[in-house]
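dumping this here so i dont lose it
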């Protein structure tokens, strides 16, 4: 799979831009702040309907414009598919697939598979659990697009349940010692829905983490030149004391319902849902120690790289090789890690690299070069 052409209208810093890509490595070179990352961010948006840089769509629309448009021509098995997305902040995005309107924007998920590594990915190792949950859920949706719906269903139920708990919490504060707690008569119903959708999501995460394990260990070994053993473990701390790796979906649902019942008084007291996959985490381990808090800067970079390279290998091994994007990462790596990373990714069908200094990119990634600046992306070699 490759991206053959990308067209942007009022996306980020670009009033209009069009770039033709080819298979193999492509390097976008330009000063910081001139739009290199904007190009790969647009490609990532086609793949995931989200940005790796911001949580909302508003910053994606050029200042003064009402909407942004991304058109992306994707080639897979010698067949080309055109995907178009219209981003309108505050409203539902609109999509076209092969020039026909899509019923929902999320219908485009699966048309493009992409794995992106960026400086922000250091947070996968050093950041909060939400960063790691997003990593595993985004990969889950790329692997099996139907989980975009499962994820959305769980988030909808969680929002409704939190609203009910929040109302009860506020009523209790107003009621004071009188014990007024608001109407919680429907909370049992929301418990059932949350356990059902939560079990679907957790079971899929467990399956994904099991498939990732070997790839993560192999990628870390390669990037770090054999200096440590990396492991990934799924932790359901809010609903199970032990590791959930051996549980099936039905057992997970039962544990969630039990944990929700046990946490009821605490949830009413705090006005928020305390049980479910939205509170789970991935434990990243180097040797016998957790990577978070113990790994050095170089080890943390290697682990973050290993997570993305493992995702790439997993997707490639399941039949569709994704586009690989390395966004401004070579400047963050020492010479040894640069060279090892380049050697690992150079055989990929398509690798898109951004950098401020061309000399940061190893010669083994020789390929097409583009100059980025003044609102233009120009092929120079």
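and the seq i came up w/
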């Amino acid at each position: 799979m490759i991206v053959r052409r990308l067209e942007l209208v009022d996306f980020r810093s670009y009033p209009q831009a069009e770039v033709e890509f080819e298979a193999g490595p492509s390097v976008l070179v330009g000063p910081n702040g001139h739009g290199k990352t904007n190009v790969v961010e647009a490609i990532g948006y086609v793949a995931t309907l989200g940005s790796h840089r911001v949580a909302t769509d508003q910053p994606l629309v050029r200042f003064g414009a009402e909407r942004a448009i991304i058109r992306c021509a994707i080639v897979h098995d010698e067949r080309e598919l055109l995907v178009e997305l219209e981003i309108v902040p505050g409203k539902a995005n609109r999509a076209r697939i092969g020039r026909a309107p899509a019923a929902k924007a999320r219908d485009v998920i699966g048309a493009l598979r992409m794995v992106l590594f960026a400086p922000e990915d250091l947070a996968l190792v050093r950041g909060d659990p939400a960063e790691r949950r997003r990593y595993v859920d985004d990969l889950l949706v790329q692997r099996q697009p139907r989980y975009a719906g499962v994820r959305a269903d769980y988030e909808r139920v969680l929002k409704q349940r939190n609203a009910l708990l929040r109302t009860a919490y506020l009523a209790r504060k107003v009621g004071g010692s009188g014990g007024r707690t608001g109407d919680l008569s429907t909370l049992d119903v929301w418990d059932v829905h949350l356990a059902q959708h939560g079990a679907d999501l957790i079971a899929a995460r467990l399956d994904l983490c099991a498939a990732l394990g070997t790839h993560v260990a192999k990628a870390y070994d390669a990037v770090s030149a054999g200096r440590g053993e990396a492991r990934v473990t799924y932790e359901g701390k809010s609903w199970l004391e032990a590791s959930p790796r051996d549980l099936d979906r039905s057992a997970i649902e039962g544990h969630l319902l039990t944990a929700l019942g046990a946490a009821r008084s605490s949830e009413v007291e705090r006005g928020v849902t305390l049980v479910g996959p939205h509170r789970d985490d991935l434990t990243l381990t180097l040797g016998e120690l957790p990577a978070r808090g113990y790994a050095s800067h170089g080890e943390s970079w290697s682990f973050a790289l290993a997570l993305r390279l493992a995702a790439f290998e997993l997707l490639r091994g399941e039949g569709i090789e994704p586009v690989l994007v390395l966004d401004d990462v070579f400047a963050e790596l020492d010479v040894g890690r640069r060279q090892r990373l380049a050697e690992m990714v150079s055989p990929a069908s398509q690798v898109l690299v951004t950098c401020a200094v061309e000399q940061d990119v190893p010669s083994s990634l020789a390929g097409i070069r583009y100059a980025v600046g003044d609102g233009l992306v120009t092929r120079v070699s």
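The CA atoms of residues 158 and 237 lie 17 Å apart.
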